[in-house]
Amino acid sequence: MKIKIFCTSIEPYLLLNKLPSYIQPLGLGEKNYPSNWLKEKKGENIKNLNKYYGELTGFFWVWKNLSEQFKDEDYIGFCHYRKFWLNYFKNHKSFSINSIYDDLFNPQDHSFKHIDVIQAQPIIFNKKNLLEDFSLVHKSKMLIKSVDFLDQPIRNNFLDHLSQNTLYPLNMFIVKKKYFIQYCNIIFPWLYKCYEECLEKKILTQYNTRLPAFLAERFTSFWFKQYNDKKLLSYARIGKFFLSEKINKFINPLKIPFTSKIYPTIHNY
Q: pLDDT value at position 136?
């Protein structure tokens, strides 16, 4: 069994060169990236949709170009250039003098014997459901419209999920390869229908340019929530200081102690 986490990025941040070897940087879009990075513009891709799909074009690239390198029971995961898996689940923020490297997800510290999927620590809304939250944030009815593009029984199950209040955010997950393939076969035809609907309605503007990616976040949360054999892990959202190219030319800020003051990232609504 092997585990590979792909860290998607739209910029060639030096920080990502210093991550553990099981976290592989994946450069999205047309920019030039270091030679040790994977690049979605090489191979079968939908890089032209990156401004709308966000990290989902990276998922597509791994699906089409790398998935055959994994066995069914191997694990494929994703994180983002400033959002990283932690090695634990915590319900509250806590202080530590550790470097963040000491708390990054380490496959050797976990038993995967009965685990099909790992999801990010959930956001639980107190006074609204997922559909209401999406409408408030995006000023759009596109999420409820997106349900129409799914076949039964997925349509009803997704609609039921949207009436609830728990979101597993960020399009972050670690899952067995066989279930990753199933997910991709469902989400990408659905997402393209959503994208075409957004184009027709001319709503892919400003903050909602990435509306398909935000729709995918709600679907991804729903899809992997269905698995019984799953685990939750916390995550860290890294600030601009840690991403700074100037700082990373001289030091690696993720190794500086006291960085735990900024994580885990926990939302209260």
A: 97
Q: Please state the pTM of the whole predicted model.
A: 0.96
Domain count, the chain: 1
Longest dimension (CA), the chain: 55
* Alpha-carbon span 19 to 204, nearest angstrom: 34
Q: Residues 6 or more apart from 163 whose CB is under 8 A from it?
A: 129, 130, 131
Q: Mean per-residue pLDDT for 116-122? A: 97
Q: How far apart are CA 226 and CA 161, in angstroms?
A: 10
- The torsion angles phi and psi of 163, rounded to 5 degrees, stand at -85, -5
Residue 269 lies in a domain: no
In a domain, 267, yes or no: no
189 upstream amide cis, omega within 30 of 0: no
Q: Tell me how far apart the alpha carbons of residues 76 and 210 are, in angstroms, rounded to a whole number.
A: 24
Q: Strand pairing partners for 83?
A: 80, 237
- Do the domain assignments include residue 268? no
